Backbone:
């Protein structure tokens, strides 16, 4: 019995964090392909710094980037901005263990595209991770459904836009039990996770 408890204690919890609309502001065309469009989400840098310093979570980015590497969204316009975002967080003590990027369009229904878990199966097949006490943080209902599909909990950054409603595969009401916390204030999210 003791061994089991010790093993459990050392299991790693993860914050699976969306990018656009969560740590940076979403744009109307849903494409951050220039520095002019880049705005960090208020208090995301300072709050994630405190989360990284004080709390015991691995931090992983999981993002859908529709049509990345097509003519409409060439990688040459994506990576400079993306790398700047990652470097800015790194300078604030926030290291993303992984950056998992799906490049498909919604209509392709790829197994790797949120809310599907194709990019995250290695977390489920590894006993080192405590997925039940991990969180998906995002501004879309697909992020909440991703939490449901993983067996984790969701933190819903609800800017009252109901983004991702068209892509969820269950009824909206079915996602409510998976929302552990709902706020568009990163300080409040930090406070919730600290508790």
Residues:
């Amino acid at each position: 019995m003791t061994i089991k408890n010790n093993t459990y204690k050392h299991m790693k919890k993860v914050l699976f964090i969306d990018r656009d609309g969560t740590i940076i502001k979403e744009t109307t065309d849903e494409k951050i392909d220039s520095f002019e469009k880049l705005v960090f989400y208020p208090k995301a840098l300072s709050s994630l710094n405190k989360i990284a310093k004080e709390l015991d979570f691995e931090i992983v980015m999981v993002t859908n980037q529709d049509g990345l590497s097509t003519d409409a969204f060439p990688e040459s316009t994506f990576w400079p901005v993306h790398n700047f975002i990652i470097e800015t967080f790194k300078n604030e003590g926030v290291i993303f263990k992984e950056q998992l990027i799906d490049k498909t369009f919604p209509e392709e229904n790829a197994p790797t595209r949120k809310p599907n878990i194709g990019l995250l199966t290695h977390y489920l097949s590894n006993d080192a991770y405590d997925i039940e006490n991990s969180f998906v943080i995002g501004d879309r209902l697909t992020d909440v459904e991703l939490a449901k599909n993983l067996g984790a909990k969701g933190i819903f950054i609800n800017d009252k836009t109901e983004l991702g409603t068209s892509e969820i595969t269950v009824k909206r009401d079915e996602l409510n039990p998976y929302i552990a916390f709902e706020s568009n204030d990163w300080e409040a999210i930090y406070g919730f996770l600290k508790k």
Remarks:
- The beta strands are 13-17, 57-64, 98-102, 135-138, 153-156, 179-182.
